[in-house]
Structure formats: C-alpha cells, structure tokens
Design goal:
globular, 22% strand, 9 helices, Rossmann fold, four-stranded antiparallel sheet, single chain, seven-stranded mixed sheet, alpha/beta
Length: 285
Amino acid sequence: MSVKDGKSIMAEPLLQIENLSLRREGRDILRGVNLTVQAGQIHVLLGLNGSGKSSLAYVVMGCESYTPDSGQILFDGRDLAGLSITERARMGITLAWQEPARFEGLPVGKYIGVGVREDQTNERERVMAALEAVALPPKVYGFRAADQTLSGGERKRVELAAVYAMRPRLAILDEPDSGIDVLSLGDIERLIRRLADEGSAVLLITHRDELVTMADVASLMCFGSILFTGDPAEARRYYAGRCRPHLESLGAQPWDAASPEVQAALASNGGPVSQLSGDAVKEPA
C-alpha cells in the first residue's frame, strides 16, 4: 500500500517478504521480517548502521552465505528459494552495492551498457540517458575508464546509471547516497523517482532520514526487526526521536540482546511504535 500524501493505493506486491529470519555465526541477524514493495513504488528501509538492512538486501539478491533460516520471499508470486543470483537477476532483480565495484580498463559507457536488454531501445541512447540522469556528461564520461581514477562519488553515480539503464523490475539501492555530496543528492533523488515512474519497484536502504522524503512508504528496521511500516513522515519522526538517541547511548548495532541497557531501549521502542499509524506494525523482540 502506498500512503504518501495521505493516499492509499492497494495493489499486489511485486516483492513480498514473509517472516524472514537469518542467523549467522551464532547471531540472529534478521528476526521475522515482513515487508512488501509494489511496482512503481519507492519503499525506503530506514535504520541505524548494523541493524540488518544490508543483510536483508543480500538475502533477497541470493548472495552466498545469506540463505535464510526461515520465512519466504516471493517475487511476482514466485518463491525465490533455491534460485541463484544469476537467476534472480534474469527475473529483473538488481542490487546496487553500498561499495561500487571497479572494472579496470572497461569504459564507463560499456559498463553501463552491459545490463541493457536486447528488447530495449538503442543501447547508446539508453546509456547517454542514464549518464545524463546522474549528471555525468556523456561526452566526458562515456569513454572514460571505470577505474581508480574515478572518485567514490563518481563510481556511485556510474553504478546508479547502470541500474537505471537496466530498467529492472526491482532495484535494491544500498545506501545510494554514500560518497555523494549534499549538493548532488537532488540528482540522485530525481534518478530514483524516474526509476519508479518508469515502473521499477525501488527498495532504498539508508541510515539517513533525509532520504525518506522521497518515499511512497517507509519501514523502520532495528535490531533485525521491522518496527514500523507506513507514512514516511511518521517514520522519520520516530527515527529522529527514538532510534538516533539509542545510537548515542548504545553505539552502533548489533547490540548484545542480554544487556539491560539494550532491553530497556527495545522496551522503549515498543510503546510509541504501536501508536503510529501504518500498514503493519511489529513489536520489537
């Protein structure tokens, strides 16, 4: 359900995550996660560093060592269990990594064009449009090598341009603002909105609540659980009022669940969250 601007639009979810749990190296990473994303929707997953957001992205993408212990992931009604990264990519799922990859010696334009499907428009036009969408002049960057000469911000823009050129059915963007200066965030926001407007479902992962303003719906993740899903403005207020203070007092997640201080923090989360309006509310464990 999209709830932006007070509007609620029901549709069948493209991505549906049901009661998903993941345990690694003797530690619970994800705890009964439920989340849905619709086609053409920007769903922001907001949470402190270490709260399990990236792990959820790796599970959806089918990364090695990220096979869930329980739960189900449905994509367009199909169970993703047992499918490889390649098979999921062929279905239209793509992940823009928090740290973009380098492809030494490969021109930026060629790198972006790799993911353009044969049934899409002219590859050159799509690559140029993708570069322009992230404010990188095609004449300057099209033939430039995708190597160490690119800054972190430039590599992030190139990766986002490659995602846009693919026209994926589901784009998972892990911290798309990392390495991007504040003045350039507007370019990234416009690109993400264009992705959604062209029909892609976008799951945007971030610890910066400023990015929630572009969301159609937002979810809060803490300690491996989804605490709230609903109105982006309410999610942002809760994050600023509750989650950030926990970071200052307890440090970065993951936390020691047996610690009295952590138990008190989770208990304090459990009260106000149940009073927030939204599609789904899950009390913290």
